[in-house]
Amino acid sequence: MNAVQAQKPIRVPPLIAGLVSVIIPGLGHALVGRVRQGLLLLASLVSVIGLLAWRISIAGRRIDNWPGKIQRSFELHPILLVLSIGTVLLYLWIIVDAYLSAKPDRRSTTVWLFALVTLLFFGLGWQIGEIQPVKLVTQAGDGLPFMQRIIWPWDAAIVREEELQIARAVVQIPCYDEPVPTVEPDGPALSTSPQCGNLSQPAGEPGTTLHITGTGFEPESEVAIWWKDEQGNEFRQRQGGEYLVVMPDEQGNIAVDVVMPYRLMPTEKEVSYWEVQGRQLAGVGPAHASPELLLAIEKMIETIFLGMMATFFGIIFSVPFSFLAARNLMSGSWVTLAIYYLVRTVMNIVRSIESLIWAVIAIVVVGLGPFAGIVALTVHTIAALGKLYSEAIESIDPGPIEAIQATGANWLQTVVYGVIPQIIPPFVSFTIYRWDINVRMSTVIGLVGGGGIGFILIQWIRLLDYRSAGIAVWFISITVAILDYVSAEIRERFV
What we know:
This protein is an alpha+beta fold. About 60% of the residues lie in helices and about 15% in strands.
C-alpha cells in the first residue's frame, strides 16, 4: 500500500471544511479525519479567548462597558493588544489550515499553527505574571544589602560581651521649682546646660536644646548619646535621622548640642526626671555563640528529627497501602480491583493537598509545634510513598510471581517470596529521597507554626533581622547538602 492509499479519505471539500471552521473552529479538521487535532485547536482558541477576556476585564475593572474596558486595557497594557491581534490571527489561521488539510495533496500548516498557540500562551503568562525584566535589572541593587546580611550572617552568630563606661546626668522635665538630682561620677562625668527643658512634640515642635559636656572619656573612641526615661526605657539619641555619636578630644572631653527627644508613652506626672548618658566602649569580652545561633542549632536539630519521624511513620503506613494500590497484585477479582481503585483514589486526593495545607489542619487539631508538622508530613508522605512504592511493585518482573503462583501459593506467599525481593532496592531509594524532601518541607511548614527552623526563620524575616535569618538559611543549606551526601552513600550500598 503506497502513501496515497494509506491516507484517510477526504470526507468534505476544502471549501466546506473552511466554512464550518468559521462557525466552530476545529470542526473542519475533524471532518477530514483529524479529530484530535481539531479538538486541540478548539480548546486552545477557547482558552486563549477566555484568558484574554479575563485580563481585559481586570485591567478595565473601573469601566462598566466592554468597549471601554478593551480600550482602557490596551492603553495600560499594550501586550494585550498584541495578544488580541494574535488571537484573531489564530482564528483565521485555523480556518485556512482546515481548508488546506481538506485538499487532495493534504497540505497543512498545523506545526506553525501550534507554534502560534504556544506563543499566545507564553504572552498571556508574561502578562499574568506581570514580568518586568527592566525593573528586575534596574532595582536589583536594592536587594544587595539584605543579601549581604543573609550570605554573611556570622557577625550576628558570634558575639562578644561589651564593657561600657557610662557617664550620666539628670534632666528635669519640664523646668520646675525643685532642685535637680545630681549623679556622683564613677569614671567619666557628664553635665547639661540647662538642667531642665521640654520634650519634643510628635507633631513636629522641637524640644529644648541642651548643651552637653563631658570629661574623663578615652580619646579617639566614640561616645554614643543615650536616654533613659523615668520608666526605665533606654533608647539612643537620633538627630538628622542618624544615631548621635561624639568623638572626644585629646583630653577626653566632649561637647555637643542635643535636642530633647519626644515621649512615646504619655504620663500624668507633673514633673519627671530623665537621664542622659554618654556611653563609650571600654573593652570586649571573649567570643561566644549568640542566642540566635544557639536557637538556630536547636531548631535545625528539631527540623531533622521532624523530617525523620514523619518519614518513619510514613513508611509504616505506606507499605501496606502500596500493595493494595498495585494493579498487578489486585486484579485477581472484582473485590480486590475495587479495593485497588478506592486506595488509589484516596492516595491521589491526599497527595494533591500540599503539606502546608495539612500543617494548617494539623495545627487546628493538635496546636502549634513540631507534632503538627510531623502529622502534616506523615499524611502527605503516606500518599506520596504509597504511589511510588505501588509503581515499583507494578514494574517488577512477572516471571517469579507466575512461577510461585504455579506452585499453588496464596496471595500473601506470592508477595513475600515473589514481590518483596524485587522491590527492596527501589523502596530504599524512594525512602531516602522522601526523607530528603521531608527535611526541606519541614522548613516550609514551620512558616505556619509547624515547628522546626522555618518557624523562627519567618519570625526573623518579619522582624527584618536578616543576619539571623541568614544563619537559619545557612543551616538549612548545610543540612540538605549533608543529607544529599548521606543518601548517595546509602543508595550506593543498597540500591
